[in-house]
Amino acid sequence: MILLNKKKRTILFSLAIISFLISGLFIIAYSNGYRFDFQKRKFVLTGAIQLKVKPKEGLTFYLNSKKKEIKNNSLLGSNYFLDKLLPRKYQLLIKKEGFFSWQKNLFVEEKMTTFANSIILLPKEIKGKKIFSSKIEGKILPLKNNYFLIFAEKNVYLQKVAVEKPIKILTTKEKIEKEFLNEEKNLCLVKTKSDYYLLDLTDFFSRKKINTFFLKAILNKNLKKKELKDVFLTKKDKEIVLVFKEGIYLFDWQKRKEKEIFSLAKDKEIKKVFFDKDNLFYQDKENNLFLFSLETRKNKLIIPKLKEEISLVSLSFDRKKLLLASPKEVSLFYLKDFFGDFIRKKGEKDILFQKEPEKISWYKDSNHFWLIENNQLHFLETDPRENINIFTYPEIKNFLYEKEKNLLYFQKDNSLFLFDLAKIGL
């Protein structure tokens, strides 16, 4: 047994006290959210990342390429929380077998939580149920009672599932450019370069009768010497919207009566018009973009002096965002201040896609949307932070999304498929 003298005992006791104090400080700092940052060589407060992912089952998380075990922290099981993160940029990757991966670079700040609460994963292959096939090549749209419309060049056909021979219900003088169904799927508006046709299918499902109206001829009798810009269907079966360069009319096509609901000043005129969710958007000669509500009959300037030519417009379901398509890109315009996973002020714009689409449609959460371009269906997020996630499905000619039932119809070749998004946890 070695006996220490008083001086050595004093030194060891002092070292023990110092060690205890330092350890205590470390413990207190750790419990208060501090960590030592070896890059900065100092203690810093940590931050966190909160995620909400759908579907919620079978997910694997990677943080800076390292697998991370994360448990959900909500009763619904779709929220995930990563805490005690040093303030810096992180690469986050979420994988699920058979699904597209989601990846984004997120910044974490001291004492702050970074949010990504609108994450959606989709399967790499949409295995929809084939609900209709046709020998005629053309665009297919679903009706009621297992009937379908087929638009082929200058002809419109009606065909039922399991019935081989389609019925030709309309032949146009020019090639069909656009076609629209109303929500009830009993009215169809067919547009060519210089004419409009209205197919009333209301009586077909009960009496097998189709009423066809040649709108241009009817309108020429009722509204002479007016330059018609476009025609649109509304939620009301009996009314259609007529847009002239001087103003906007509602037209009762059964009674052949029109009613002016908006007129422009004498020195103004409508240059181009778009219709979406019973809202009418138009550009004037100065390229100002206006929103006219059919419900309130109010006219509002949305974007002054647009620099690019707009080809498509779509208003989000929450009415806070506007998708604008031009020959070069798809951009997102904020109609109101947005405080979500990121912050955008009213009037700000994000570019989300670098090509012109043929069709765009919002997903039900107003944070994602569908578009079709060059026979490819794309599903995009609106989160503009580093790496915008885009899921792509090739060889798809057309699509139709129904928000209420969360159903996606898509067309491959001459067959129409139905995909129920609710069945994969969305």
Question: In short, what is this structure?
Answer:
By secondary structure, the protein is mainly beta. Among the domains are: 42-120, Immunoglobulin-like (Sandwich), CATH 2.60.40.10; 129-342, Methylamine Dehydrogenase, Chain H (7 Propeller), CATH 2.130.10.
Helical amount: under 10%
Q: In one word, what is the shape?
A: elongated
- Count of strand segments: 39
Biggest β-sheet: count, sense, barrel? Answer: 4 strands, antiparallel
The CATH topology of the domain at 129-342 is: Methylamine Dehydrogenase, Chain H
**What percentage of amino acids are in beta strands?**
over 45%
Structural class: mainly beta
CATH level-4 homologous superfamily of the domain at 129-342: YVTN repeat-like/Quinoprotein amine dehydrogenase
CATH architectural category of the domain at 129-342: 7 Propeller
* Number of helical regions: 3
User: What are the segments in which pLDDT stays under 50 over at least 5 consecutive residues?
Assistant: none
Can you give a write-up of this model?
This protein is mainly beta and 426 residues long. Among the domains are: 79 residues, Sandwich (Immunoglobulin-like), CATH 2.60.40.10; 214 residues, YVTN repeat-like/Quinoprotein amine dehydrogenase (Methylamine Dehydrogenase, Chain H), CATH 2.130.10. Helix content is 9%, strand content 48%. It has three helices and 39 strands. The strands form eleven sheets. It has a four-stranded antiparallel beta sheet, with no helix packed on it. A four-stranded antiparallel beta sheet has the order 10-39-38-37, with no helix packed on it. It has a four-stranded antiparallel beta sheet with strand order 11-12-13-14, with no helix packed on it. Strand 34 and strand 35 form a beta hairpin. The longest helix has 26 residues. The mean pLDDT is 85.
